[in-house]
Amino acid sequence: MGWFTRKKENISKESKKSDLPDGLWQKCEDCGEIIYNKQLELNLWCCPKCNHHFRIGSKEYISFLFDEGTFKEIDKKMKSADPLEFVDTKKYSERIKSTIKKTGLNDAVKTGTGKINNKKVSFACMDFGFIGGSMGSVVGEKISRAIDVAYEEKIPMIIISQSGGARMMEGAYSLMQMAKTSARLARLADAKIPYISVLTDPTTGGVTASFAMLGDVIIAEPKALIGFAGPRVIKQTIGRDLPEGFQRSEFLLENGFIDFIVTRKQMKEKLSLLIDYLHNNHK
């Protein structure tokens, strides 16, 4: 009877799951949890299951660290030139233009002033999305100017680092920024104005070798990769297996390279507490 007849085409093809709309969900790279984007944002871009801290940019950090409406950006229009006329797979100048269009940023750091629990600070936050958060002449100049604001207004300085290191397309111009930012921070220290450094995933290369590790207090997010050379490079160089968790925040805390590991949910209150303590004791 026809009632019990199956058509071959109905059972030969696998049923397809409906595709999820792009941009609505994220998969946690640590535990594999599928997270609705709005839920992720409400949880400050941390996995609600395993607390993995997703990589975010300056816009997101500003949104939850600063009192609403108090952040004022400075040097927004500053863009990198191409002093060496560098060419790799394509011209550096073209890569700058395409990255600006893609990210909506003019370079790999955003600087300005704002209030954290009604306490004014000078602030710089790097963006890994802009050529790997690499430090070129604009990054160094903007951070130096932000440090100058802290010096002139006698307010604390906070820098959030997120970088692959110096920007090779600018050669020595990039390396010069290590000395320039460090010199500015030395002047800040002489004036007894506090500097808090926050390290996020990843903080490596010339950034680690300069301003990132010079804070009066150094904070890191959980499981952030922090170091000068990457673990693969070190392993190949020394020909040995590295300790478990090498160059992660927890390893650095255990070995005395950083002062605290702080989750994003605790970050604003921790910074506020440190500003109170450091600023009052430095007056």
UniProtKB/TrEMBL annotation:
Zn(2+) binds at residues 28, 31, 47, 50. InterPro entries: AcCoA_carboxyl_beta, Acetyl_CoA_COase_Trfase_b_su, ClpP/crotonase-like_dom_sf, COA_CT_N, Znf-ACC. It catalyses: N(6)-carboxybiotinyl-L-lysyl-[protein] + acetyl-CoA = N(6)-biotinyl-L-lysyl-[protein] + malonyl-CoA. GO terms for cellular component: acetyl-CoA carboxylase complex. Its EC number is 2.1.3.15. It is an enzyme of class 2 (transferase). Belongs to the AccD/PCCB family. This is Acetyl-coenzyme A carboxylase carboxyl transferase subunit beta. It comes from Stygiobacter electus. The gene is accD.
